[in-house]
Each structure stands twice: as C-alpha cells, then as structure tokens.
C-alpha cells in the first residue's frame, strides 16, 4: 500500500488533499504542530503532533512511517504578518523544510510534492501567468516559498530526489459534504470574509478598492476549488510514482473573478443582501492575477471540475453555515 506523510495535513488545503489521498486507497499520516491547523480536520489518517523545527521529531516520524512520498503543505502563510515578522516566516517555512528534506534523504525518501504559490511571481509583467514568468516576490511569505523552490531544484540536481512544486492561485471552497472547510484565524481571505458579512449582523464586508483598471473596478483573482487542488496533488504524486522528473506547475482556472462578483455570488448563495462597504486598496494588491495552467493539463492531465465561482461560494457557504 502506498504510504504518505502529509505535513500540514490538519490545515485547510492539506486536509482536503488527505481526503482524496485516502479515497485513492493510500495510507495517510499527518505531521502537524496544529499552530494554524485543527485536530478535527484530521479525518483521513493518523496524526503525529510535531513541529518541523524539531529535527528529531520529523526524523522520528519519517523513520516510523517510512513513506513512499511526502506531501508538504506545512507553512505559515499570512502575507501581512510575514512583512512585520519575516524571521518567523523564514525560520518556519525555509528551515522547517530543510529539516524535512534532511530527514527524508537520511531515510532514503526521495519524492516530495510542495505547496508553492502565485505569490512567488510578485507584480505580474504579463497575463495570464505561466511558469516561465519571472519570479520576484514582493513579501517575505512569497520569498520564503521561492527559497524553498530553489532548494528543491538544487537538491534534485545533487541527490536522488524528485519533486513537484505546485503554485496555487487562490485556494477557495470547501468539501461538498461540509466536513472540512476554510478556517484561518485570523481570516484575511475574501470569500470567508464576504460570507461573514452575510452571516453576522455586526460585520461589514469591505471591498478593498474599486478604482482598479478591471471590468468593474475591483481586483480580479483566479479562484480554484480545494477539491480541484487535491486532484492535482494526487496526479502530481502519480506522476512521481511513475518516474516523472522534477517539475513545477501552476494551478488555477485561467479565469478571473472580481471581488464584486464574489460579493454577488455570496448574496445569491445566502439569499440575503450583503453588508458591504468600499475601502481603500490594500498595499501590494495587483489589479489582476490569473494563471496559465496549460502545463498541468498537458503533463498531469489536470483540469478544474469544481471551480465554477457559484460552486465555490455555495460549498464555502454550506461549510460556514454548519
Ligand atoms: N490558502 C491559499 O490560498 C494558498 C495559496 C497558495 C499557497 N498556499 C500554501 O498551501 C499550504 C497550505 O495552506 P493552507 O491555506 O491550508 O494553510 P493552513 O494554515 O490552513 O495550513 C497549514 C498547516 O501547516 C501546519 N504547520 C505550520 N507550520 C508548521 C510546522 N513548523 N510544523 C508542523 N506543522 C506546521 C499548521 O498547523 C497548519 O495545519 C501552505 O504551504 C500555503 O503557503 C495556500
Ligand atoms: O476583506 C477583503 C479581503 C480581500 N479583498 C480582496 O479580495 C482579493 C483576494 O484577496 P485574498 O486575501 O483572499 O487573496 P490574495 O489574492 O491576496 O491572496 C492569495 O495570494 C497571496 C499572495 O499574494 C497568498 O498566496 C494567499 O495565500 C492567497 O490566498 C484581493 O483583491 C483583496 O484586495 C477584499 O476586497 N476584501
């Protein structure tokens, strides 16, 4: 039976991937320090509670599980906090990954999939963004992810080590049965906050800028359903198991949705008007970001199936309602 160690499997994206990995008949063990994750999200495998910054703990977990591959989701990912506390981000995201990779090579575990991000591209020079777009992150979070991508590439050149880095655009939506969903604290992501505006009498959802050069003045982003992300991770692992070489893939739909369109979709899902205000732009927000994900289609045969914005928002609404 294929065995996987999943770091960060108690988090939002990781838990949805564990669900699909278990459905595929794979044996899943989660390694997570629960710093931003949730014990109750670990429903498809065992949990080893541990921190990647603890070298002994991760080495012990790798030795115990003897995984065929590692799916590495564990990271801190709040852009704003990474600007005020860069040391925490570099330590956790870069040193944590180095500890993991050293533990893997010491135990001859040679395959990894890694959660990267469109934040490694920085301010886009052209659209849609393909994998060859220059990478020039504009915050420490994005830099920490780019550093890991470079370490992975160097490791792959030097050792018997193959990886796939998946650069997600905006992960969104929730499990169709509402067992798990997006739960970040504090929450900064647009869909959960718009839903809060529809659910709570004392929360007003603020559109951060309506004077961008986009079709309705609000920012365009490429929202990809977490279950589509999970499918891409499963395919990336299959690719490595079949002997595929190290590679990097964008994961997005190629279509952009504006913040106003999100607000409209939330009103439709909830059946009530949203308490809404217009605020100033958030520093560092580019007007539009969307992916060219054709490489994932060509090599992995991956295409989004659940990422229609209505489906994304409805699944998120059902999870938050529960
Ligand atoms: N959510 C998005 O839109 C998005 C977009 C692009 C990339 N990503 C990346 O995807 C991954 C998952 O994101 P998410 O939204 O599910 O975040 P999340 O915070 O829900 O999950 C991260 C998990 O990692 C764990 N973790 C963090 N540091 C750890 C450490 N040192 N040791 C052990 N466990 C640790 C946390 O407890 C948590 O369970 C992250 O690497 C993130 O950078 C997310
Ligand atoms: O209350 C809010 C929150 C967000 N937005 C807008 O909604 C859009 C999406 O914002 P999110 O914070 O949901 O997502 P980002 O595009 O900023 O973030 C994504 O890209 C980041 C890097 O840039 C990280 O990778 C992050 O994890 C990922 O979700 C942005 O235009 C933002 O200005 C609002 O209008 N109101």
From TrEMBL:
Chain ranges of the NAD-dependent epimerase/dehydratase domain: 5-252
Entry keyword set: Carbohydrate metabolism, Isomerase, NAD
Protein species of origin: Hirschia litorea
Family listed: Belongs to the NAD(P)-dependent epimerase/dehydratase family.
Gene3D superfamilies, per the entry: NAD(P)-binding Rossmann-like Domain, UDP-galactose 4-epimerase, domain 1
Keyword S-adenosyl-L-methionine attributed: no
Official protein name in the record: UDP-glucose 4-epimerase
Enzyme Commission code: 5.1.3.2
Signal peptide: none
Quaternary data: Homodimer.
Catalytic activity: UDP-alpha-D-glucose = UDP-alpha-D-galactose
Cofactor(s) in the UniProt record: NAD(+)
Listed pathway(s): Carbohydrate metabolism; galactose metabolism
Gene Ontology molecular function: UDP-glucose 4-epimerase activity
């Amino acid at each position: 039976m294929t065995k996987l160690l999943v770091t960060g499997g108690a988090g939002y994206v990781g838990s949805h991937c564990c669900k699909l990995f278990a459905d595929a008949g794979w044996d899943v063990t989660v390694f997570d320090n629960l710093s931003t994750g949730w014990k109750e999200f670990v429903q498809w495998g065992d949990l080893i509670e541990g921190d990647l910054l603890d070298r002994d703990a991760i080495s012990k977990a790798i030795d115990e599980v003897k995984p065929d591959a590692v799916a590495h989701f564990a990271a801190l990912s709040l852009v704003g906090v990474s600007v005020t506390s860069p040391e925490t981000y570099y330590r956790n995201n870069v040193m944590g990954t180095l500890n993991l990779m050293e533990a893997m090579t010491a135990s001859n575990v040679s395959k990894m999939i890694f959660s990267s991000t469109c934040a490694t591209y920085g301010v886009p020079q052209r659209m849609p963004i393909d994998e060859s777009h220059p990478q020039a992150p504009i915050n420490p979070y994005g830099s920490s992810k780019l550093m890991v991508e470079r370490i992975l590439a160097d490791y792959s050149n030097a050792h018997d080590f193959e990886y796939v880095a998946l650069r997600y655009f905006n992960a969104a939506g929730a499990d169709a049965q509402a067992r798990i969903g997006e739960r970040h604290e504090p929450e900064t992501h647009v869909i959960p906050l718009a839903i809060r505006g529809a659910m709570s009498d004392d929360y007003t959802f603020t559109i951060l800028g309506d004077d961008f050069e986009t079709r309705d003045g609000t920012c365009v982003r490429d929202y990809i359903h977490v279950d589509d992300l999970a499918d891409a991770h499963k395919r990336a692992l299959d690719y490595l198991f079949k002997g595929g070489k190290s590679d990097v893939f964008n994961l997005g739909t190629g279509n952009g949705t504006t913040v106003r369109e999100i607000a409209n979709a939330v009103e439709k899902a909830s059946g009530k008007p949203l308490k809404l205000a217009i605020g100033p732009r958030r520093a560092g927000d580019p007007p539009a970001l969307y992916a060219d994900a054709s490489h994932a289609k060509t090599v992995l045969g991956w295409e989004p199936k659940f990422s229609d914005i209505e489906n994304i928002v409805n699944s998120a609404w059902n999870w938050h309602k529960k």
